[in-house]
Amino acid sequence: MDLVQPTTCCRTLLLLSSFLLVLDGHFICWQAVLRCQQEKECELAYNQYLAACDAYLKGNRKQCPSHCISALVRLNQTQNGPDLENCDCGQDQQCRRVKRTIEPCIPRRLPPDADSMGCTEARQRCEEEPGCHSTLTAYLSNCGQLFNGRKCTLKCKSTIQQMLLIPSGGLLNRCVCDGVERPFCEVVKENMGKLCAIGEQSLSTVDPESEDMYEDEEEEPRTDREEGEADTVTSYSGTGRTQLSVSP
């Protein structure tokens, strides 16, 4: 879908069509885009999203970059940004493609009645207990190469095993990746499944605010590609869930 600045005709059309919803109660995506462009903050956030997520949407990045996730969060905090969350693409195939592509970047939140605990809550519970908190800190310090997808060192593996012996640490093994930490959490979970042979057990979450702690005494210099993929780790502000269903 090519985005253009709304003309006077488009603005009139927007006013006439703003009440037209698809049968399931969601806006049509072109309507959601026009509504966003009528709000200065939303338009700015949307343009930032297009720039931040461009490389990922084009398939030039394997993992969702942190600045793309942050842009999605900011967009969802605007007045009309949430209208883009569940808008309907209709028969627009490019819109559908973008919706599928951007899904892994979405800060997913579990419903209150979900059977599983989200990893954000599991980590918070661990941090509230001194024993679990100290082991989690060691995990963040000792598993830098695991987070980068390089290898699971003996020290990292030993720390994971210690964590799994703690009740609150066990929650980190069973939790579901959610919130703004979701993309990086899922990458770590995948890396651990491939690199750490600890039966069926694995911790599935880390705190992305600990980027500066991801060092390992055995770590070797990283390639340019690894440096790029490490951009997934970052500090986030704000929360929200934005599912963009429209294409640049």
From TrEMBL:
Keywords, comma-separated and alphabetical: Cell membrane, Glycoprotein, Membrane, Signal
GO annotation, biological process: regulation of cell cycle
Family annotation (SMART domains): GDNF
Bias type Polar residues, positions: 232-248
Keyword Protease tagged: no
TM segment ranges: none
Entry protein name: GDNF/GAS1 domain-containing protein
Localization annotation: Cell membrane
Positions of the UniProt region annotated as Disordered: 204-248
GO annotations of cellular component type: plasma membrane
Biased composition (Acidic residues): 208-230
Top-level taxon of origin: Eukaryota
Signal peptide (residue range): 1-25
Domain GDNF/GAS1: 29-105, 119-196
Phylogenetic placement of the source organism: Eukaryota, Metazoa, Chordata, Craniata, Vertebrata
